Amino acid sequence: MEASIRPLTPNLFLIVLVPPLDGFDDFIGAWLVKREDCVYLVDVGPAVTADKLIGALDALGVTHLDYICLTHIHLDHAGAIGHLSRRFPGASVICHPKGEAHLVDPERLWQGTLKTLGDTGRAYGPILPIDQARLAGPEQIAAAPFEVIDTPGHSPHHFTFVDKDLFFAGEAGGVCLPVPSGNVYLRPATPPRFFMETSLASIDRLMAAKPKTLCYGHLSMREDGMAMLRKHRDQLLLWKRVLMDCMDKTDGDPMGTVDQWIDVLLEKDPLLAGFRELTPLQQQRERSFLSNSVKGFIGYLKDSR
To answer: Out of 121-130, 163-172, 242-251, which region has the weakest mean confidence (pLDDT)?
Structure first.
């Protein structure tokens, strides 16, 4: 399947990348900003879709990239970085300092992905290493026509890139997927280990910057960025209350009741209402990620007691 190119403004394109996994349509993408003074990508998708991304860039007439920006190094966002850095040798790669070593020597990242995601990680494909010299230093980052904000939470190595009104937030504001009715489907991206206070502080940092347009890593653009961040902040607090109540009513290991708690959240969290509009395969994918998010919350709540 070819990558889908969605022009959103004259200078902004969303390139949708579909790995060979059931239900992963409209889920993974790369953002291209193409201006006369600067051309850059935010996230590159998994290695398995690298050729599709390069083909889409060719179709858009992109012959060089000034920067390749990674919100974080999870393989659905950064897996194709080795392929893209070879295709565009003049591009500087911007990555959180905590993730840089994993791009230069990705073996631990690859093995960790297999342990966490199993067959999904294998379908993403292994990440190719990049040259240390390709990583942008502080001076290069300072000279870039965008701001970089440290937003840990979904991962400890998470950046948000701010270009005027555009906030490329990765998963710092959760996962926001389009549904047929136009309603919101917004869920937390809180895989183990999850640190609630860190995530809330990152959301507060973004809100202090007064975001207008929020470009999600998965996979929509919202022009009510401040309102969406506020909703997501409230959503995390709701999940904390609901899951604390579930834990209080559960004997034994709470990890054994994750599926039941997902059903409770689907009933009580209005921001998950769009789940019912997803296709069966998309629902299957989402239940898997919801399971990871609930497990992240369980670990956090157990550690907090």
So the answer is: 242-251
Write the DSSP string, 184-244: EEEE---PSS--HHHHHHHHHHHHHT--SEEEESSS-EES-HHHHHHHHHHHHHHHHHHHH
CA distance 175 to 166: 17
Q: What's the mean per-residue pLDDT of the chain?
A: 95
pTM: 0.96
**Residue in 28, 294, 288, 282 with CA at minimum distance from that of residue 179:** 282
Bridge partners (DSSP) of residue 178 are: 184
Residue pair 213/223 in contact (Cβ under 8 Å)? The answer is yes
DSSP letter for each residue of 29-92: EEEEEE-SS-EEEE----GGGHHHHHHHHHHTT----SEEE-S---HHHHTTHHHHHHH-TTPE
Confidence of residue 276 (pLDDT cuts 50, 70, 90): very high
Q: Which of 221, 89, 73, 101 is nearest to 159 (CA)?
A: 73
pLDDT tens digits, 44-78? 999 999 999 999 999 999 999 999 999 999 999 99
Q: Assign residue 15 a region: left if phi > 0, alpha if psi is -120 to 50, beta otherwise?
A: beta
> Amino acid identity of 127?
I
3-state class (DSSP) for residue 249: coil
Chain centroid to CA 254? 27
Q: Tokens standing for 101?
A: 């070593």
Residue of 96, 127, 98 lying closest to 110 (CA atoms): 127
